Task: structure prediction
Amino acid sequence: MSGRTENTPSTTKDEAPKVDDQYVHGLPMSILFIAQCLVAVLIALYMTVIATAVPSITAHFGTIEDVDWYSAAYLLSICSLQPLTAHLYNLFFLKYTFITFLSLFALGNLVGALAPTSAAFIVGRAVAGMGAAGMFNGSMVIMVASFEPSLRPRLMSLSGSMIGIGSVVGPVIGGAITEHAGWRWCLWVFLPPIGAAALVFFVQRIPEQMPKASPLSVVAQIHHKLDLVGFTLFSPASIMFLLAMSWGGSRYAWDSATIIGLLCATPVTVGLFCAWAHHRKDRALIPPSLVAKPVILWGCAVSFAQGSSWIMVAYWLPLWFQSVKGANPQAGGLMMLPTCISQILASVACSILIKRIPYAPFWSIVGNVLTAIGSALLTTFSVSTTSSERIGYQILGGVGRGFAMQMPLVAAQEILPSNQISIAAATLFFFQYFAGAAGNTIAKTIFINALGPALRRYAPNVDAESVIHAGATEVFKMIGAEDRAGVILAYNHALTLTFVSNLEKSFKSEKVVY
Result:
């Protein structure tokens, strides 16, 4: 597991047949890369843009029962479809496969924007997640096929940092749009940039890394070429576990038949999937020989920890700014700028420094250490935390994520043969977003279970259930001035406990990386 970014025997073997003019250069390369960055921003933005619009959405549809599904439907689709989309890129032409997933993403936005019911809105989120799953993998595969090896580490780091930007600015944009134009425009605004990105990919030359048959001949043999049995086992296992984490302690009690059934069925289904993958070997949805490679095992551990840390910070730190510091949604998003800017600058710096020390695990260790320190400092947040403290703590975590998040992909694309890159990218993305989805639902459970007792302790005169359902943006409108300080203390207590769960993941990841 060298993770080196110089030519190794394995990379030389794959890239020797290529000649320089097979890559994209000059202005076309810049335009293609900008389009890829735009796609990364849109994927992450779609995750968080409705966070501040949820009260308006629930008021419009007249129900709060489906709130969990507004975020879960998108992440469930992304996680469950990741490996399957990787195989599609190995079978079909890169350009048209990517545009197809872009179209699915646009369709999901359109369905959500026009949704007459809450159920239709959830369907739109799920369809958009199907498109996003393929956009993740496709962007990395196209980058490997189109850009020279010497440029890839820097460009991968930069494009990866765009995901951080999208997730951070999502609540700011969503809050502003909802306030001035209505929540449906949080989805309408995605369509023009999606169209612009699709146009760039359509007119741009995108090299193929391997010979491919005509689409019609591939479709005729699709049941032989795709591991559909593996997919029917992998997808339900992912969904059942995430549903158990999402519903447990909120919609259903942890000892309810529904949660116990989901938690029992998940390992059984995972066991069947592993047995089937062992039987299929290299033709499996996730080939065991690929997962057994040290670079992938290490990459999955890093992706899991960093994915959980990134999504939890993106979701829960703005809530701390709103509930404890009294910021509105837009201001809360702006307070996240230290995280966003430091992550971008660290990604750029790491893409330069990795040429001096061309060993990806070293940079992931540095990144994970800084992420763990930043996560530890977040648990010390209190009502009296100063601006300099919150900015400094965010910078530490942002620099850590900037160093570590893209290192698994950088190492994988340097070491693996071209026909395994899409599957490796899908596996790494799965662990990143599965960790984010699971970590976020666990954090939500911790927060809700901690907030009720904290409210009864610090603000005994308020109705705890009403405060929990009101949300941070509305709670202070419904309580008296005499209860305000107590509610703030209760929110701070519950939120710092969610930051503790994030800290535990960071330290466990550090042990695995070492």
Q: What stands out?
A: Residues 1-20 have pLDDT under 50 and may be disordered. Residues 31 and 46 are 23 Å apart (CA to CA).
